[in-house]
Write a structure and sequence with these properties.
Chain lengths: 222, 312
Amino acid sequence: VNTVAAGALAALVRFATGVVVERPHGPVAPGGRVYFANHTSHLDGPLVWATLPAEQRLRTRVVGARDYWGCGWRRPLAARLPVVLIDRHGLDVTGRARQVEVLLEALDDDGSLVLFPEGTRGSEELPAAFRTGLYHLARRRPGLPLVPVHLAGCHRMLPRGAWLPAPVVPRVRFGRPLSLAPDEDRDAFLQRCRAAVCALAAPPPDAAPVPAPAAAWRRRPA
Amino acid sequence: MDAELAAVAGAAAGLLVVSTGTGLVLERTASAGPTRAALADMNRRLAGWWIMGLGFLASLLGGAWATLALWSLVSSLALRELLTVARSRPADHGVLCWSAYAVVPVQYWLIAGGRMDWAQGLVPVWAFALLAIRGALAGSPAGFFQGAAELFWGLMVCVYALSHVPALLTLPGRPGDEAAGLKLLVFLVAAVQAGDVFSYVWGKALGRRALAPALSPGKTWEGLLGGLATATAVGAALQPLTSWTLGQASVMALAAAALGAGGGLVMSAVKRDRGVKDWGALIPGHGGMLDRVDSLAFAAPAFFHLARALGA
């Protein structure tokens, strides 16, 4: 995908959806990383990709399932978009290892990935249990920053099976990067990653300061 | 452009140039601290006014079609912001799409054709009934009443009410005056926004008694009264735009500004109830589209009715 087309596509996605982007932990540092998010809608991948800083976006690809995006009318579409397709069904041990290699290759040269570790679209505000791919990536690239992302409103806007986006503004909230601790086991790590996404679903403490109606009105000083 | 409209546009542009210049100079010279932060906030708001002012001016220059296009866009953006905050069931996806892709275009198409009796019935008669029936037939009833009620509220505010602004173009107006409708539109927007802006200004300068601390901590009685007085004066000054007497024009501006303040308060109550501070982040310094046009929620339809009764 060339630079101008990518920029125009990202601007179109942002403008058409009116997406609200929140980075409570400041701007994104340069370098490769894995963004992982809850997954409820086809809009999720485009929204995370379109809200990244431009130079980051050009090196970022969204991970999709080959059995879905590599078939039928979706296949030519996916071929033109910044997407990495992996197999998710009917794999033996070597087959699964090969999928990890595909993703590691995409992370070379400061590349970044957008990954939905649930492996499919859900319908709840909080993600289902994570599958293990994120752990394997973290184990093979120990220093790699993993950025939790929470997407809100995408499911109301374009749920599974819908083809028209409803008039709702989605929100993308980027969290603080984390990485695999040296002695952390797989399940603990995956639970920590999922908890990081869930924590972003709650509004930050300063989001809606509801004023205490203590002083109904101030009297004029005597 | 009509000479009277050009004079009003020139006055508004002059006001904007002077306040922008003053704001920038004051911010440069102010020492760091709360005063400077308040000035920076004011300058952000002024930047938003430039964007809105130029958009509004472009629509006036473009005439009836550009005005309808602008307000249908305003309606769509406001509706999207409101429905983001409103609750809905998963099964309401179709109903939400119908309101955005059918109700909004049909409403503006009816107004463009001058069919005001149909335009005034579309939301309260047809959308009210048909969307409720469509919603009741879909999904589980849990949450149906809440979803249907909040959707209807959104349609009333963002489609019914806001479309009454360009609907002023359908009023017959002074015989022989081609731009009579546009002038009424400018009169309404100027009165409501003057009330809004000057209640902020008077509130900053003199505000002591909080008006509704649980809704809007910044709003004060002094600000409200100052804003209404300023809006009345603006209405009197804009009397040449209308076919009304000086007294009628002043009372119309006062009514519009008072309902404007009421609309702002009610929409603040909705935001507080749903735990959001702003409707969005579309306009720099102002929040979302709905943060700027919330004062038209009650003022626009009421102004239209009163203007029609007065024989505008």
